[in-house]
Amino acid sequence: MVEFRHLKTLAALRDAGSLVEAADRIHLTQSALSHQIKDLEDRLNCSLFIRKTKPICFTSAGKRLLALADELLPMIRNAERDIARLAGGETGRLNICIECHSCFDWLMPTIDHFRHNWPEVEMDLSTGFSFLPLPALARGDLDLVITSDPEPKTGIEYVPLFSYESVLVMNTKHPLTHHRFIQPSDIKPETLITYPVDQARLDVFTRFLDPAGIEPNHTRTSELTVMIMQLVASGRGVSALPNWAVEEYLQRNLVTAKPLGEKGLWCTLYAAIREEQVQAEFMQDFLNTARDITFRNLPGIKTA
């Protein structure tokens, strides 16, 4: 009565917390996902979760199937990985470059997990803050670039990893805390703290301030997220950062965050890969591992 697809659906529903997001993660329409769950409940003659609860509250039967999913899904993933090795896809090189200062939080656990599963793949990691990584990727010096700023290039494919909201972070006593959302003109009198990256590569400028013709009163930079948070918390300025990168500081009530614009400023993080390498077994497994870890650990992100 219980099929593999049912276990994947229930696991996605638990991890996503809503039918809409779960449907996106497993590439189904919401109606198809609802029909699949209803079909399983009819087969089992019991409900698997309580409707209209947030977060989703699973019944005892639902929890038992989730325990089964947690046991079987990794076993199937490992079996697929072993078969890929037997088919001759076990060796290769994966030189990674990141253009994202706050990505270490999820990238390092991803690399650790990947190294354990693919010990034969040679790996290296560098940052793209002092050189242009995309030309290096095209030349073959790099194999994968993590970026939120895709540039059309022949032979390069951009694989979406996840979408996140860029929010404006401020001191808890800042006047802007009373605003429902931030308008470009609100930043004009402020000191805007950013990572040491060219403004042409920062979404807060290219997609929010520049179209409105607005410049902040002053800018300053810091390489570390924790230092930016210290500066913001002490009232030295405001900063636009990924929602998941500031969640810890929000929970500790050190800072406040507001959406950029009425609808929010949503960005997508991509893995840039040469076209001939995208379908390599180890490359596909790295991408799947990155998605698994980010959706388990980063709050507020969405399927891209």
Automatic annotation (TrEMBL):
Its main location: cytoplasm. InterPro entries: LysR_HTH_N, LysR_subst-bd, MetR_PBP2, WH-like_DNA-bd_sf, WH_DNA-bd_sf. The keyword Transcription applies. One of its GO terms (biological process) is methionine biosynthetic process. One of its GO terms (molecular function) is DNA-binding transcription factor activity. Keywords: Activator, Amino-acid biosynthesis, Cytoplasm, DNA-binding, Methionine biosynthesis, Repressor, Transcription, Transcription regulation. This is HTH-type transcriptional regulator MetR. GO terms for cellular component: cytoplasm. It is found in: Cytoplasm. Residues 2-59 form the HTH lysR-type domain. Belongs to the LysR transcriptional regulatory family. The keyword Cytoplasm applies. Pfam families: HTH_1, LysR_substrate.
